[in-house]
C-alpha cells in the first residue's frame, strides 16, 4: 500500500403577501421534486485536471478518491464502495464522488490513458471494468519477461505504452467497447490527456499523498484512511454534522 453547502405584511398587503408565499412554496416544491427525480449517478463530468466525478454538484459531502489501477487495495475498495455509494447517498444527492489517478508506475499510466479513451460519459464504465479485471491483466504484468519489461521502461513513452497495452491484452479489453487498435493508439498518444494526468500528480504531491487508495472529504485529507470502512465512517459523520448544522 505504501508509495508514495420575505415576508410579513399587514392590512391590505396581507393578500399580496399570501400570494407571494404560495408562489414561493410552489417553486420550492417544484425544485424539490426535480431533485428527487434526478438520477445523480448519471450526472458525470470531467474536471479541469482530467479527474472524473459523478453525483450532485451541490452535494454537502464531496469525496475524492486517489487511486492506482495497479493497486489491489484500490480494486478491493472499488468493489466494496461503488455499489453502496451508488445505491444510497449518491442517489439522494448527498455525496458527490471524484476519481483522481495516483500514478505509481508506467502500467498505471497506460491504464489511466485507456480509461480516459472514448466518451467521457462512459469513463466510469471503463474505470470499473479495469478494476474488475485487474487480477487478469495485472498478473500478466507480474509474469512479464525481462525482454517485455525492457520494452516498458526504455524508449519513447508512446512506444512503451503500446508495448504494455499489447503484452497485457489491453487492446482486447478496449475492443470490447468498440474502440479499435488505431483508436487506442491515438488515445495513448493524447498529449493533452498526458498533461492532465501530470497535473493530477502535481496536486497529489501538494496534498502529500503517498499511499493508495487515499481520500479527501470536502477538501480535507482523511489521514490514515485507506479502505471503505474508514471512508464510510467519515461520510456518515460528515452527513450527521450536515444535518445538525455544524458544517
Automatic annotation (TrEMBL):
<dbReference type="InterPro" id="IPR036249">
    <property type="entry name" value="Thioredoxin-like_sf"/>
</dbReference>
<feature type="domain" description="Thioredoxin-like fold">
    <location>
        <begin position="49"/>
        <end position="235"/>
    </location>
</feature>
<feature type="signal peptide">
    <location>
        <begin position="1"/>
        <end position="27"/>
    </location>
</feature>
<protein>
    <recommendedName>
        <fullName>Thioredoxin-like fold domain-containing protein</fullName>
    </recommendedName>
</protein>
<keyword id="KW-0732">Signal</keyword>
<dbReference type="InterPro" id="IPR012336">
    <property type="entry name" value="Thioredoxin-like_fold"/>
</dbReference>
<dbReference type="Pfam" id="PF13462">
    <property type="entry name" value="Thioredoxin_4"/>
</dbReference>
